[in-house]
Design brief:
alpha/beta, Helicase, Ruva Protein, domain 3, about 10% strand, Arc Repressor Mutant, subunit A, Rossmann fold, 8 strands, single chain, elongated, 3 domains
Length: about 375
């Protein structure tokens, strides 16, 4: 059985028809740039925030959904210079010119001639804008194009870094005001909503469930990145398919996460005490077919593992060991409500490595210690 039916929805290039959790940012961009431009006012905008928080997809979504003004999306990393970016925009308008030797005045004059007939305004989105920091002439000409060339045009720059890091962009604008907009990280609830939509679009019915997706969302929350969450979903599904399974299991998710950002290594494990290794092994064995477990279950399993690998130390407090492992990043603990006024409880998860793999590593180390 194939788990992935429609792989396009799991690709980074996929643009949904409705963009969730970025309505506020869409409204801000529309008001600051688009509405102002329609009134003949140009407002350069600097968009920034960590990778995977929706900066690029938001602008591509707006490009897809907006007819006026016309939006051109370019990537500074792909083109290498502002001149090449603007020549690319000319090419999309039907004017093919070689970038070598052409001046900014010639470029903007050509853009002005092409836009006069249509009578429309335009927005040029430049992703990876930090790569243009040595392009003062091009930035100045683009930001001041309305007054220098009579063009109804506004630039939007996208970068990971805040605009303060690149104060030269403001300096090159002269007296023209440059606005900025920060994209925040997604929280676990938003990541769940995003991958729920992608799972419905791309995966076979019955190959995933709510618990599976919430586990992925919670595992990716530290990144705050939709890109990471979607990649984990994609890789988990591929791993499950490779196993011949009909559904994604918790260890498929852990395998996917370890491929993206490996954390646990033999050297890190070898630094743990025998008590902590036994506690970690007990947790792994409980989590073979489960997303999380509780402290009481761990304590019971520790007694079983201790019979198999006797502990040298007599002072063995399981809860202290759990806290150390959590502090060191081997496990993750969270407080959950028990429902019906029963209070709260702490549950433990492992998300950085398949527990089947981690169990084998720990057993080998404990065997050497015992020998």
């Amino acid at each position: 059985m194939r788990i992935i039916r429609y792989p396009d929805a799991l690709e980074s290039s996929f643009i949904p028809n409705k963009l969730a959790y970025r309505e506020k940012e869409i409204s801000t961009i529309s008001g600051l740039v688009f509405s102002s431009l329609m009134r003949g006012l140009s407002t350069p905008l600097w968009i920034y925030g960590p990778a995977g928080v929706g900066k690029t997809v938001t602008l591509k979504y707006l490009q897809k959904a907006t007819t006026e003004p016309r939006i051109f999306y370019e990537n500074a990393l792909s083109h290498g210079s502002m001149r090449a970016i603007l020549v690319s925009v000319l090419g999309q308008l039907g004017k093919l010119v070689p970038p070598a030797g052409i001046t900014y005045k010639q470029i903007f004059t050509a853009l002005s001639e092409f836009r006069k007939g249509a009578g429309k305004s335009m927005v040029i989105v430049i992703d990876e804008a930090a790569h243009l920091y040595m392009e003062p002439e091009g930035i100045y000409n683009l930001n001041r194009a309305p007054e220098l060339y009579g063009l109804n045009i506004s630039p939007i720059y996208i970068s990971i870094e805040a605009p303060e890091i690149h104060s030269s962009f403001r300096e090159f604008s002269g007296s023209l005001r440059m606005e900025s907009l920060r994209f925040r990280k997604y929280d676990a609830g938003e990541l769940y909503g995003i991958i729920l939509d992608r799972a419905r679009r791309s995966l076979s019915d019955g190959s995933w469930n709510e618990e599976t997706l919430r586990y992925i969302a919670e595992s990716a929350e530290g990144y705050g990145s939709a890109r990471v969450a979607i990649e984990v979903l994609q890789k988990s599904a591929l791993i499950a398919e490779h196993r011949g399974s009909e559904a994604i299991e918790p260890d498929d998710i852990r395998s996917a996460i370890s491929m993206i950002d490996p954390f646990v290594t033999e050297s890190k494990l070898s630094e743990l005490s025998d008590r902590d290794l036994i506690t970690l092994l007990a947790i792994c064995r409980i989590l073979r077919h489960s997303v999380s477990t509780g402290v009481k279950e761990i304590a019971r399993e520790v007694r079983s593992v201790s019979d198999e690998f006797p502990v040298r130390s007599q002072d063995f407090r399981v809860y202290d060991s759990i806290r150390r492992l959590e502090r060191l990043g081997f496990i993750k603990g969270k407080i959950v409500g028990m429902g019906d006024r029963k209070g709260v409880s702490k549950v433990i998860q492992i998300s950085d490595i398949p527990v089947s793999v981690l169990s084998g590593k720990i057993e080998n180390i404990l065997s050497v210690m015992a020998g």
